[in-house]
């Protein structure tokens, strides 16, 4: 029995009304008792961490880091507050992979609190807030890691049975960077198998019955709906403040679409801006690690830590350099105010292109979504932007070109899951763990793949194998690459960087709001793929884009997508930041 | 697939595959008893599959994936697993399915037909680390010690190209007179097999680093007389970079190949997975097994002279596959091509081509030309024949596409020039050097065949040895002795300078050739200065005329009878006196001077 935990907090009451001292009563009683008996200080901390975002655009990550840097709150206390919140919300939401800690490493709380204490030990040696900020810029920030990204100490299943017991040998570069910056990994967030899906309903871990809880990941705004996907767990976790930040991956919209569905900011950086090392590949030429935060600023702080070249990833971009941290990095670019416009018109003169093809009023895009785009355009005009329609005729090529490319690469990336190499919970094939059932190795591999991989990966493997096959490769894969080039060139041609007129482009993030769980229509793959229509073009082009909440439709959040020229993450975060402040939406889900 | 019963050993994989990567070995073992499939396990498998997904795809897959026999649909990739492109197992692994026509009984007229041969060679590059990770690249290490998450194909890992690989590939390309491309790209070559950790091999498909070269392979045959090396030109189609696969060892009969009632274990050593290779593909320019072997030998010499590879065929550092087709002489179009693999020596290259020529011509002669199928055949060294391994219908569709994990390979400006400037001596230049020293083509051919021998020889000559004499010693007595001692030039104690010293001792009359020969075993074994050895043993030749005259006089005096006979006209007795003198001097007498002294003493 551990009676109380003494915080390392320094004296004085901070800006967020946090009283240093005894924060938590940790008892061996059941969590809810512990929750009920927590101290006033703990409740204050929770309010600071889990309350609404302030008008200055400071998100929970910024709040947490400031508490640690400036008020001496311990990372451990913050981590524990998040663990409590996870415990409280997980039965409803199911954002996280259960039993994600690698066997033999202890419980989730052991692992999380130990990592937090490690940061506290580092901070204890430092005197000033500035020193602490410089050493661990994201100290006290809790991080959810999408289950297809490797984090040492946690399983990395990518939502697949094929990797259900896979313990990665090392951190992904992005995870390593964030941990070094002070983040505490609080768990692996659920995703569609290998990132292939739009609902987060196909994680293999969801096959197991959970007594008294949700079977699949739920949308915090409406528990009968999905959080979107494939990074749905990350979006739900950030939206519900189970963690302050979360990593996702975006191959065709897997960060932006769930961000839109859950009312958070989701950033997909330029391809090559952030290392893919440690990201379990789906479609290597499209995959990008992405950021989830409650605000654009939180995403900017996260991007500051993970952007840049990585010697372990040859496809990461050496140039241009990310904005130097000494000059404020992406965070400063994000908050930037145009000189002439001042605080009233911080985006004065910025040219925003509304992509006509994404705003068809023929029923393909929901009214509520169109309304949010209108609201965003209006708000942007108010902020000083020039908003006008532009046309991207190649837009309609995006979806087929994307799917041909993605399935082709997926068929290749997934061929290593043959049931022989990585430990899985269920023994492959009918032979059970006693052997191959009298069959040859090849028959065994074939059977393992049939049973270890879910329908969507199998479907994509089949399609991808077809699109790359001799005789079809030229007709499908190579033509898709031509179309891809066209989409890219056309998109660039609209941008100032490519000789066009727009600084950024604006589109809906998704044609709809969050789907209902188990939506029958989505079981038709073509319907599901149509939902990606707004986002896939950006992946084909490799450009950066951010989804930012722009309105509510029937109680569900709606996001808009701001697309920038290559390596212009600063510009789109800047638009997102001012837009979210100007719209002033309350984005705390009613939990 | 008609595979034998296989069992996965209670797995090092299952237990450890995560962190202890060194234990990642696939083991399949023979099952001793047939196991009845338990319904409970099936039930469990079905239960875990019961998801909210359409059953059709899975049903389709289940049907296609586990179907066991041909014919097969081309569009189902899993069958490509059967492609054993990687495979150089013992030929016994494969049941013979050779065409009904075996080695022909009656000799076929070789004048009517000609063979058209192209050669594909894989050469392992002698780098410190592997092609795409930082694991050591070494032959003969304990299995699965030189492995890491990258070369084991762990999820999330990415390849990073070893620059040295590019350098060696460019060097090889230049030596083969190829065009080196400023920009090339990497592709994924995809097929399923236990030796391929990622399910694909990183290779270069449509934009290789080097193309369009040629090799002039010397075709000198010992015993023929010529002033210059006769050569045959073989055009090089391409040279590209790729990674090697894991090495599979089949214990007992192989089930992986789908043999009937197989069994035995298959062990995978991933030390070789990711070792850099260049694949060198020729145009179909060769016409005889002899020429194909000559090309392969020259290629091996080139990579050894370049320091690019050990070129050791037994260790698999250099692996040749030949494409053989037969056509009537004068015909323009090529016949049906057969690829022959598993050639572990140059003589195997020669014999396999010859066998294929006989097999294919006899089929053509018998009017059964249609039975020559485009297929892959394995060379069986024991039986000296090729056996069908897989036919074209089963051939892999490798589904190449650009490797998205690696950017285009663009050479730094000046990179190729720098490689060119540091180009070591090539075998062709070595042969020219040797001919320039006045050696015969036969001698030059032997000395240039091996880089070690050539370097030893050049150093010896540059230390002052007379070229022809040094050549004779090296090619003759020294190589014979080394063979006897089971040593080679690299490991023997005598250095080239010491051989040069020995040659000079002979030239200067200090010792005779015969004495030198007697000293060789000790010199080769222990090294040291031949001069000091000669002196310490008191073997310095007696070349002092006065001393020799004295000895000769004694001999003449003590053999009056023979002297009388000799002077009486029995000239043959001169040899007797030479022998006596040599005996008296223990062989140290200068033979020429002995003759002179004896004549003086006897003919007076
Ligand atoms: Zn390695």
TrEMBL record, chain A:
Keyword list (alphabetical) reads: ATP-binding, Chloroplast, Ligase, Mitochondrion, Nucleotide-binding, Plastid, Protein biosynthesis
Tell whether Protein biosynthesis is among the UniProt keywords.
Answer: yes
Leader sequence range is none
Q: Which Pfam families match?
A: Amidase (PF01425)
Origin superkingdom: Eukaryota
A GO BP entry: mitochondrial translation
Where do the TM regions start and end? Answer: none
Give the EC number. 6.3.5.7
The answer to keyword Acyltransferase applying to this record is no
Main enzyme class: ligase
The protein's location, in the record's own words, is:
Mitochondrion; Plastid, Chloroplast stroma
Give Gene Ontology CC terms.
chloroplast stroma; glutamyl-tRNA(Gln) amidotransferase complex; mitochondrion
Q: Per the record, what are the reactions this protein catalyses? A: L-glutamyl-tRNA(Gln) + L-glutamine + ATP + H2O = L-glutaminyl-tRNA(Gln) + L-glutamate + ADP + phosphate + H(+)
Q: Tell me the active site.
A: 146 (charge relay system), 230 (charge relay system), 254 (acyl-ester intermediate)
Q: Which residues form the Amidase domain?
A: 120-573
GO molecular function, one example? glutaminyl-tRNA synthase (glutamine-hydrolyzing) activity
Q: What does the sequence similarity comment in the record state about its family?
A: Belongs to the amidase family. GatA subfamily.
Q: What does the function comment of this entry state?
A: Allows the formation of correctly charged Gln-tRNA(Gln) through the transamidation of misacylated Glu-tRNA(Gln) in chloroplasts and mitochondria. The reaction takes place in the presence of glutamine and ATP through an activated gamma-phospho-Glu-tRNA(Gln).
Oligomeric form and interacting partners:
Subunit of the heterotrimeric GatCAB amidotransferase (AdT) complex, composed of A, B and C subunits.
User: Any other noteworthy remark?
Assistant: This protein may be expected to contain an N-terminal transit peptide but none has been predicted.
PANTHER family in the record: GLUTAMYL-TRNA(GLN) AMIDOTRANSFERASE SUBUNIT A, MITOCHONDRIAL (PTHR11895:SF7), TRANSAMIDASE (PTHR11895)
| Protein name from the UniProt record | Glutamyl-tRNA(Gln) amidotransferase subunit A, chloroplastic/mitochondrial
In its UniProt entry, the species of origin is given as Chloropicon roscoffensis
TrEMBL record, chain B:
Q: Name one GO cellular component term.
A: chloroplast
Q: Which reaction does it catalyse?
A: L-aspartyl-tRNA(Asn) + L-glutamine + ATP + H2O = L-asparaginyl-tRNA(Asn) + L-glutamate + ADP + phosphate + 2 H(+); L-glutamyl-tRNA(Gln) + L-glutamine + ATP + H2O = L-glutaminyl-tRNA(Gln) + L-glutamate + ADP + phosphate + H(+)
* Documented EC number(s): 6.3.5.-
Q: Which SMART domains does the protein's record reference?
A: GatB_Yqey
List the keywords (alphabetical).
Answer: ATP-binding, Chloroplast, Ligase, Mitochondrion, Nucleotide-binding, Plastid, Protein biosynthesis
| Annotated compartments | Mitochondrion; Plastid, Chloroplast
Q: What does this protein do?
A: Allows the formation of correctly charged Gln-tRNA(Gln) through the transamidation of misacylated Glu-tRNA(Gln) in chloroplasts and mitochondria. The reaction takes place in the presence of glutamine and ATP through an activated gamma-phospho-Glu-tRNA(Gln).
Q: Which HAMAP family does the annotation name?
A: GatB
Q: Which family does it belong to?
A: Belongs to the GatB/GatE family. GatB subfamily.
Q: Which PANTHER family match?
A: GLUTAMYL-TRNA GLN AMIDOTRANSFERASE SUBUNIT B MITOCHONDRIAL AND PROKARYOTIC PET112-RELATED, GLUTAMYL-TRNA(GLN) AMIDOTRANSFERASE SUBUNIT B, MITOCHONDRIAL
Q: What is this protein called?
A: Glutamyl-tRNA(Gln) amidotransferase subunit B, chloroplastic/mitochondrial
């Amino acid at each position: 029995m551990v009676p109380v935990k003494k915080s390392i907090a320094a004296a004085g009451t901070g800006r967020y009304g946090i009283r240093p001292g005894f924060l938590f009563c940790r008892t061996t009683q059941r969590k809810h008792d512990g929750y009920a008996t927590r101290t006033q200080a703990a409740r204050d901390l929770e309010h600071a961490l889990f309350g609404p975002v302030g008008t200055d655009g400071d998100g929970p990550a910024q709040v947490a880091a400031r508490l640690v840097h400036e008020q001496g709150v311990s990372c451990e206390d913050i981590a524990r507050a998040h663990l409590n919140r996870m415990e409280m919300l997980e039965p409803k939401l199911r954002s996280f992979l259960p039993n994600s800690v690698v066997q033999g490493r202890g419980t989730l709380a052991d692992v999380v609190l130990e990592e937090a204490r490690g940061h506290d030990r580092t901070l204890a040696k430092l005197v000033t807030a500035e020193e602490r900020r410089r050493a661990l810029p994201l100290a006290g920030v809790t991080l959810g890691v999408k289950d297809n990204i490797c984090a040492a100490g946690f399983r990395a299943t990518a939502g697949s049975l094929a990797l259900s017991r896979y313990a990665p040998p090392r951190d992904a570069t992005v995870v390593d960077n964030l941990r070094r910056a002070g983040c505490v990994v609080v768990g692996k967030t659920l995703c569609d198998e290998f990132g292939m899906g739009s609902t987060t309903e196909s994680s293999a871990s969801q096959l197991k019955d959970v007594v008294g809880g949700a079977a699949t990941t739920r949308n915090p705004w409406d528990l009968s709906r999905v959080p979107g996907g494939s990074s749905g767990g990350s979006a739900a976790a950030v939206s519900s403040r189970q963690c302050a930040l979360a990593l996702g991956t975006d191959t065709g919209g897997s960060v932006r679409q769930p961000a839109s569905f859950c009312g958070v900011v989701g950033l997909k950086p330029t391809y090559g801006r952030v290392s893919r090392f440690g990201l379990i590949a789906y479609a290597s030429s499209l995959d990008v690690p992405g950021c989830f935060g409650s605000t654009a600023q939180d995403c900017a702080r996260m991007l500051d830590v993970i952007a840049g070249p990585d010697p372990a990833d040859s496809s990461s971009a050496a140039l241009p350099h990310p904005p130097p941290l000494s000059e404020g990095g992406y965070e400063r670019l994000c908050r930037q105010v145009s000189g002439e416009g001042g605080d009233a018109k911080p985006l004065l003169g910025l040219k925003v292109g509304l992509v006509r093809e994404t705003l068809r009023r023929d029923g393909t895009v929901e009214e509520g979504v169109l309304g949010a785009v209108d609201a965003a355009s209006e708000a942007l005009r108010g902020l000083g932007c020039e908003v006008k329609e532009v046309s991207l005729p190649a837009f309609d090529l995006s979806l087929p070109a994307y799917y041909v490319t993605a399935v082709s690469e997926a068929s290749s990336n997934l061929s290593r899951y043959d049931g022989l190499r990585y430990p899985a919970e269920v023994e492959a094939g009918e032979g059970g763990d006693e052997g191959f059932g009298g069959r040859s190795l090849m028959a065994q591999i074939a059977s393992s793949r049939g049973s270890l991989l879910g329908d969507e990966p199998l479907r994509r493997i089949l399609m991808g194998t077809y699109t790359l096959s001799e005789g079809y490769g030229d007709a499908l894969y190579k033509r898709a690459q031509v179309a891809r080039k066209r989409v890219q060139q056309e998109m660039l041609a609209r941008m100032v960087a490519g000789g066009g007129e727009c600084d950024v482009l604006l589109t809906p993030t998704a044609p709809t709001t969050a789907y209902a769980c188990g939506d029958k229509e989505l079981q038709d793959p073509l319907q599901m793929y149509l939902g990606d229509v707004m986002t896939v073009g950006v992946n084909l082009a490799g450009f950066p884009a951010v989804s930012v909440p722009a309105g509510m439709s029937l109680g569900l959040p709606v996001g808009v997508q701001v697309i920038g020229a290559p390596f212009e993450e600063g510009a789109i975060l800047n638009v997102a930041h001012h837009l979210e402040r100007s719209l002033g939406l309350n984005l705390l889900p009613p939990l | 697939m008609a595979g034998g019963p296989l069992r996965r050993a209670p797995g090092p994989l299952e237990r450890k595959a995560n962190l202890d990567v060194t234990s990642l070995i696939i083991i399949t073992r023979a099952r001793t008893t047939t196991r009845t499939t338990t319904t409970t396990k099936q039930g469990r498998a079905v239960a875990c599959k019961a998801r909210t997904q359409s059953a059709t795809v899975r049903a389709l897959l289940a049907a296609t994936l586990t179907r066991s026999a041909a014919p097969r649909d081309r569009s189902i990739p899993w069958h490509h697993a059967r492609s054993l492109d990687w495979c150089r197992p013992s030929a016994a692994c494969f049941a013979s399915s050779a065409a009904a026509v075996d080695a022909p009984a009656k000799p076929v007229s070789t004048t009517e037909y000609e063979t058209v041969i192209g050669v594909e060679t894989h050469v392992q590059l002698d780098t410190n680390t592997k092609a795409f990770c930082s694991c050591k690249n070494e032959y003969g290490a304990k299995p699965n010690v030189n492995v890491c998450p990258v070369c084991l194909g762990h999820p999330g890992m990415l390849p990073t190209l070893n620059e040295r690989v590019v350098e060696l590939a460019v060097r090889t390309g230049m030596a083969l007179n190829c065009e080196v491309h400023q920009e090339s790209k990497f592709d994924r070559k995809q097929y399923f097999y236990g030796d391929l950790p990622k399910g694909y091999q990183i290779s270069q498909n449509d934009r290789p680093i080097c193309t369009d070269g040629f090799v002039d392979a010397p075709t000198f045959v010992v015993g023929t007389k010529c002033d210059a090396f006769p050569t045959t030109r073989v055009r090089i189609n391409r040279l590209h970079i790729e990674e090697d696969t894991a090495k599979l060892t089949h214990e007992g009969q192989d089930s992986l190949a789908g043999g009937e009632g197989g069994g035995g274990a298959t062990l995978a050593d991933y030390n070789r997975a990711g070792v850099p290779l260049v694949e060198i593909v020729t145009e179909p320019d060769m016409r005889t097994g002899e020429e194909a072997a000559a090309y392969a030998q020259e290629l091996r010499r080139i990579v050894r002279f370049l320091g690019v590879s050990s070129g050791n065929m037994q260790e698999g550092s250099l692996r040749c596959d030949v494409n053989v087709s037969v056509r009537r002489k004068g015909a323009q179009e090529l016949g049906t091509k057969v690829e022959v693999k598993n050639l572990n020596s140059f003589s195997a290259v020669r014999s396999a081509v010859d066998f294929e020529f006989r097999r294919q011509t006899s089929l053509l002669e018998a009017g059964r030309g249609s039975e020559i199928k485009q297929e892959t055949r394995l060379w069986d060294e024991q039986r000296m024949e090729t056996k069908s391994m897989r036919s074209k219908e089963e051939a892999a569709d490798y589904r190449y596409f650009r490797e998205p994990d690696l950017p285009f390979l663009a050479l730094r400006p000046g990179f190729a020039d720098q490689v060119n400037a540091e180009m070591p001596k090539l075998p062709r230049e070595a042969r020219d050097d040797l001919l320039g020293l006045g050696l015969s083509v036969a001698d030059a051919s032997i000395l240039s065949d091996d880089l070690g021998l050539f370097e030893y020889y050049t150093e010896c000559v540059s230390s002052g040895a007379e070229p022809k004499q040094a050549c004779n010693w090296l090619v003759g007595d020294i190589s014979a002795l080394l063979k006897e001692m089971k040593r080679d030039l690299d490991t023997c104690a005598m250095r080239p300078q010491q051989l040069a010293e020995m040659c000079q001792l002979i030239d200067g009359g200090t010792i005779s050739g015969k004495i030198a020969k007697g000293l060789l075993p000790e010199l080769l074994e222990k090294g040291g200065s031949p001069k000091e050895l000669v002196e310490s043993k008191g073997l310095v030749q007696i070349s002092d005329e006065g001393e020799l005259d004295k000895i000769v006089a004694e001999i003449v005096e003590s053999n009056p009878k023979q002297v009388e006979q000799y002077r009486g006209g029995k000239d043959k007795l001169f040899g007797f006196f030479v022998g006596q003198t040599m005996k008296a001097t223990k062989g140290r007498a200068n033979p020429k001077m002995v003759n002179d002294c004896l004549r003086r003493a006897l003919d007076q």
